[in-house]
Design goal:
This protein has 439 residues and is α+β, with helices and mostly antiparallel strands. The chain has helices spanning 3-19, 66-71, 86-100, 112-125, 204-229, 248-255, 303-316, 391-396, 432-438; strands at 37-39, 54-62, 104-111, 128-134, 141-148, 152-161, 175-183, 189-196, 231-232, 234-240, 257-259, 321-323, 330-331, 352-357, 374-386, 412-424. The chain is globular.
Length: 439
């Protein structure tokens, strides 16, 4: 599935055609899903210039934890059973991951025992440093971020737990992981985020609360880094969101706003089949135990201050609206089609994404009145993305994992150019009383 592999097969096909006029291109093996890299047309309005830009690549991949495979073995009854054991799958996974040669790797369903025995030693042997967050509650798997050490330095690592005792919307053991990295060839910083949201199609309410928690943590990490280093990172968010491109959850990520008062929790992720008794989301949605407001920002720990903030926001906007502060977030496959698939669940749907957002002025912490510093902004431009096959193309190969595809998910991958520019912070307005006093 790699760019190299696609290029090699293309060159081989051309050589074959030139030496055998009229010969047909070799057919794709029946058990292989054919994918290609798509170039993104240049946008004249972007700031990125060849002289000042740098580039990096990202892959996100749910690799199917072996314990979850065994626990849900009935889902894989139609698979080639010889392709399901972990040693065989890891052999294919490691080759596939290496073939991408990505600068940043985000994996989901990474089992802890396999991490220490196979995954971490291998990734370190080919030049990566790895960071891992295991699911809470003694569950076997978690999420991993691996970064190429010759291209990036890891500045900060923030694990994210979604579990909070005392509320049914926060009692699940899913997790996220955030790494702030800096390119060694420049001072450009990127906030790399990886998560795996709850699967249950009928509990979109839990997924949405988990997502709000993750976005609030991303906002906090970005602002803390900007305040400390005067550098505002761009954001890349990878993961298995267990939500389709036409769901309210996807809309919330990409539109930065969701009005949810008339939404059913079973319909939030787009995975529901209609066989349920509709249940509306609670208003307000976010439990107090999170200390997160409806703008997906962590509130002050002072109790009276927190109550005052909630009352002020409630006067400005209805409580049935949530927003996030990560900026203008796009999917690398922003032209999603209703019949595409990154996994075989539900006869083939898309739930795996690479989202990205350039640094924006709104994310800069308010400067002091004496501040005279410039802020460095990081801008991303999507240059290439790996195509997503149709559900028919996925169905054609039969059930996966198989002898070629080592997981029940397919990897998503993208390539970016990145550059930075400096901009002076806007100074806070002086109160009217002080201006009058000076006169």
């Amino acid at each position: 599935m790699s760019f190299k592999g696609a290029s090699s097969s293309t060159r081989a096909s051309k050589r074959h055609t030139s030496s055998h006029r009229g010969a047909c291109k070799p057919p794709v093996p029946a058990n292989r899903i054919w994918r290609r890299w798509n170039r993104i047309p240049d946008n004249p309005s972007t700031r990125t210039s060849p002289a000042s830009s740098h580039h990096f690549s990202v892959i996100s991949y749910n690799i199917l934890a072996k314990t979850l495979l065994k626990k849900n073995s009935w889902l894989y009854d139609r698979c080639d059973q010889s392709a399901l054991n972990w040693p065989f799958r890891w052999s294919n996974l490691s080759q596939e991951i290496k073939s991408f040669n990505s600068d940043i790797i985000c994996l989901q369903e990474v089992e802890g025992t396999d991490l220490e025995k196979d995954i971490r030693p291998y990734l370190e042997s080919i030049g990566y440093v790895t960071h891992y967050k295991k699911r809470t509650g003694n569950l076997p798997d978690g999420v991993l971020i691996a970064v190429k050490t010759n291209n990036f330095e890891v500045l900060d690592v923030v694990p994210v737990n979604y579990f909070r005792a005392g509320d049914p919307l926060t009692d699940r053991e899913n997790v996220g992981l955030i790494c702030v990295v800096q390119m060694k060839s420049t001072d450009i910083t990127i906030c790399v985020c990886n998560t795996h949201l709850l699967y249950n199609p009928k509990r979109g309410d839990v997924k949405l609360v988990q997502l709000c928690t993750f976005l609030a943590e991303i906002d906090r990490v970005v602002k803390q880094h900007a305040s400390k280093h005067m550098k505002l990172p761009a954001v890349v968010i990878c993961g298995d969101f267990n939500s389709t491109p036409f769901s309210p959850i996807y809309e919330f990520v990409t539109a930065a706003k969701l009005v949810y008062n008339d939404l059913c929790m079973q319909e939030l992720s787009g995975q529901g089949n209609g066989n349920y008794h509709p249940k509306l989301l609670p208003v307000p949605l976010l439990p107090d135990v999170l200390d997160i407001d409806k703008d997906c920002r962590f509130q002050e720990k002072d109790k009276s201050g927190r109550q005052q903030q909630q009352q002020t926001r409630g006067q400005a906007e209805q409580l049935d609206t949530i927003r996030h502060q990560v900026g203008e977030v796009k999917s690398c496959n922003d032209q999603h089609r209703g019949y595409e698939a990154t996994t075989t669940q539900d006869e083939g749907i898309t739930v795996d994404y690479i989202f990205y957002s350039s640094a924006n002025q709104a994310s800069v912490p308010p400067p002091s009145s004496t501040s005279d510093d410039d802020v460095s902004f990081t801008e991303l431009t999507l240059k290439m993305r790996l195509s997503i096959p149709t559900s028919e193309e996925v169905a054609r190969v039969g059930s996966i994992p198989n002898q070629i595809h080592p997981s029940d998910h397919l990897p998503v991958a993208a390539r970016f150019t990145v550059n930075s520019h400096r901009q002076r912070q806007p100074q806070p307005k002086e109160p009217k009383q002080q201006r009058r006093a000076r006169r």
